[in-house]
């Protein structure tokens, strides 16, 4: 009893001392308000007090950014255990990691990171059985820049694997530059393409196809709307200005085309999309010089992707009349949907991918978001199911269709990644590389539970914590969510989360509607006019963690990025007393103007457009910026970046300015961290990422009054 009494006294003393560090009152940097900036939507006047913050190039905005970062620095610097967390994160980061190997031609390629390298290095070795020590460097992106802001963003092998195309991004921007390396000599060719966005390199013959938007106006590179994309063909040895225009649609600038080719370069596919979901499909047989494009799908109501071809017939994965997806064969000489041959029919689980290896089809399914690998023959008959170490997430099985060996990776919230070799000759797995992370997975547990949302819908939630954790309703807990764009949130291992678990905390991921966890129907239940379901699902997840004894409102933090940032902004407007800490990161916060910037117009498929009155009313009902009121919000730490040209930083700037102005009381800070020379999650050095996460977790524990 005496020990318990002393602990309580000690805790009270700590909390008292902790809060002495807080600046009181919180004197935020002054943010000027725009005057008479009013937009009219369907007869309704909406004031935009901070419109001037949309101009990221103005000296006024740059000064505001500097002052906000300095204020955040001063606040976070006072947290006594921030450096301690940073030290532990560095330890968690500092171990060698290997990617899933993959075969191209007669060689094996893989990525390796020594631990604290800014970027992983691409290696090649001559044989599967060769030691990794015999491998040689193909591309070392750490040499692109000293500060790690120039990154390798994609690699694309030519059809005969004699050339390697690769793309480079700078400062986290979505803009790319293309280069080509001769794999025999190891030297780059003179080919250099600029101003590429949302495109890969689809090889055929002695060049490749790609899609590109018009070059933006000077000074508007990171904000100008990206429309009127076109498909080009680049022949090796020529300059970009000579590239051949393959496809454009000048009458529909918001319908974007993109290209791909089959592994042998025989078939060219042109997909067209109105936004982030749904595509049409045209195909051309490049073996026939005079062939024309054949239309396979002429609407945007589904998603279909060609994997490869089998004897001239297209192998495709589609959710057309199959919300959880199926695999079909399409004869382009008779491409009507009624003539498609179903190889792998839709079933109760969500089919996420299919690869052709060893003349077999390797399909990845999600069964309640847990990975399953099923191997079929080319007639669609099941041959084998891959045994995984337990419930978790797996991906891989990449390579060429004639190879007999491949690799896959397995992990979970509490299981660091392990890479396995799979031998198709005897249908067996063996460990190829096991993580050396300084984290004892045997001490922790991951559980999957289900709870009811507001309307009774069952929602999955993954929860991780120490096996011996006492559920006293006071555990510091971080709940993560996304809920949109058909993206599935899976229980991946995150090397930063052990800091939370090792300090008596709980980490949870809620699989809310709007994602792809249960197919297209699940996605549609959280988009457009159904968006409130997303927020209800997440709020119900928070309430579940409280009622089940994991945590309490004063010990609960929430986090989400991009569309997940929208989620966090919306729920703290709707339920401010339910959470203690909130991290809205690179979020879409101004739902009335998101279509104005870069690729934002493409999200109207998901969110709706202000041009439609019903959509406008719905967007206004939850827009994080427009629903801020004078009340006490949780402690908020917003993250954005000055080179984010996907969700422009103006969203977060305007949101923070207004939230700081409306926050009631001095105990709960509203801070913003604006990354410099970084983008929508990319462009950060390892050191910068470690520092950023140290700030987050220190802020979370500090605001909860938890000693570390």
What does this structure look like?
There is one protein chain. The chain is of the alpha+beta class and 708 residues long. It has three domains: 339 residues, Alpha/Beta hydrolase fold, catalytic domain (Rossmann fold), CATH 3.40.50; 48 residues, no CATH class; 116 residues, no CATH class. 19% of the residues lie in helices and 33% in strands. The protein is built from eleven helices and 39 strands. It has an eight-stranded mixed sheet with strand order 32-33-35-34-36-37-38-39, sandwiched between helices. Strands 3, 4, 5, 6 and 7 form a five-stranded antiparallel sheet that branches. The protein has a four-stranded antiparallel sheet with strand order 8-9-10-11, with no helix packed on it. Helix 3 packs across helix 11. It is globular. The two termini are 23 Å apart. The N terminus is likely disordered.
């Amino acid at each position: 009893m005496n020990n318990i009494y002393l602990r309580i006294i000690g805790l009270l003393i700590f909390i008292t001392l902790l809060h002495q560090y807080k600046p009181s009152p919180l004197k935020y940097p002054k943010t000027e308000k725009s005057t008479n900036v009013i937009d009219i939507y369907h007869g309704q006047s909406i004031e935009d007090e901070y419109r001037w913050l949309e101009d990221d190039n103005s000296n006024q905005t740059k000064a505001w950014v500097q002052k906000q970062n300095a204020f955040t620095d001063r606040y976070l610097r006072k947290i006594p255990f921030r450096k301690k967390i940073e030290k532990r994160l560095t330890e968690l980061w500092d171990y060698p990691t290997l990617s899933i190997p993959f075969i191209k031609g007669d060689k094996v390629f893989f990525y390796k990171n020594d631990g604290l390298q800014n970027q992983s290095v691409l290696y090649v070795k001559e044989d599967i059985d060769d030691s990794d020590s015999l491998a040689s460097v193909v591309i070392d992106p750490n040499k692109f820049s000293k500060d790690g802001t120039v990154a390798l963003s994609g690699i694309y092998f030519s059809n005969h694997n004699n050339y390697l195309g690769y793309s480079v991004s700078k400062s986290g921007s979505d803009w790319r530059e293309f280069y080509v390396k001769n794999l025999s000599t190891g030297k780059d060719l003179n080919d250099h393409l600029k101003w590429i966005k949302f495109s890969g390199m689809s090889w055929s013959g002695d060049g490749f196809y790609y899609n590109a938007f018009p070059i933006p106006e000077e000074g508007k590179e990171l904000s100008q709307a990206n429309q009127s994309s076109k498909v080009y063909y680049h022949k090796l040895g020529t300059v970009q200005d000579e590239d051949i225009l393959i496809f454009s649609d000048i009458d529909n600038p918001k319908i974007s085309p993109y290209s791909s080719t089959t592994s042998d370069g025989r078939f060219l596919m042109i997909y067209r999309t109105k936004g982030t979901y749904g595509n049409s499909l045209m195909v051309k047989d490049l073996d026939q010089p005079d062939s024309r494009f054949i239309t396979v799908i002429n609407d945007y109501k589904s998603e279909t992707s060609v994997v490869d071809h089998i004897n001239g017939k297209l192998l495709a994965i589609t959710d057309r009349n199959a919300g959880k997806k199926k695999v079909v064969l399409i004869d382009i000489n008779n491409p009507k949907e009624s003539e498609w041959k179903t190889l792998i029919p839709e079933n109760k689980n969500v089919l996420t991918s299919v690869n052709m290896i060893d003349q077999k089809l390797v399909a990845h399914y999600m069964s309640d978001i847990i990975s399953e690998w099923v191997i079929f023959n080319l007639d669609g008959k099941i041959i084998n199911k891959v045994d995984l170490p337990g419930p978790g997430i797996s991906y891989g099985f990449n390579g060429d269709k004639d190879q007999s060996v491949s690799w896959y990776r397995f992990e979970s919230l509490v299981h660091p990644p392990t890479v396995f070799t799979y031998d198709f000759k005897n249908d067996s797995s063996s460990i190829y590389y096991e993580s050396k992370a300084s984290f004892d997975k045997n001490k922790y547990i991951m559980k999957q539970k289900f709870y009811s949302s507001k309307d009774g819908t069952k929602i999955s939630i993954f929860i991780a914590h120490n096996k011996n954790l006492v559920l006293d309703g006071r555990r510091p807990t971080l709940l993560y969510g996304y809920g949109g764009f058909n993206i599935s949130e899976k229980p991946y291992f995150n090397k930063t989360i052990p800091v939370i678990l090792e300090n008596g905390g709980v980490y949870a991921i809620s699989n809310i509607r709007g994602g792809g966890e249960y197919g297209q129907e699940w996605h549609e239940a959280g988009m457009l006019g159904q968006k409130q379901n997303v927020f209800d699902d997440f709020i119900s997840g928070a309430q579940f963690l409280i009622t089940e004894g994991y945590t309490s409102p004063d010990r609960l933090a929430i986090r989400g990025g991009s569309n997940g940032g929208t989620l966090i902004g919306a729920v703290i407007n709707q339920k401010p007393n339910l959470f203690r800490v909130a991290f809205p990161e690179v979020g879409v916060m101004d739902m009335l103007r998101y279509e104005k910037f870069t690729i934002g117009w493409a999200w109207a498929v998901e969110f709706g457009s202000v041009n439609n009155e019903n959509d406008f009313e719905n967007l206004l009902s939850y827009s994080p910026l427009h629903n801020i009121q004078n009340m006490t919000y949780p402690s908020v730490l917003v993250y954005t970046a000055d080179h984010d040209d996907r969700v422009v930083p103006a969203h977060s700037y305007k949101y923070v300015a207004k939230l700081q102005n409306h926050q009631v009381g001095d105990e709960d800070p509203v801070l913003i961290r604006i990354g410099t020379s970084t983008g929508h999650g990319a462009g950060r050095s390892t050191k910068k990422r470690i520092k950023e996460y140290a700030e987050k977790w220190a802020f979370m524990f500090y605001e909860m009054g938890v000693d570390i």
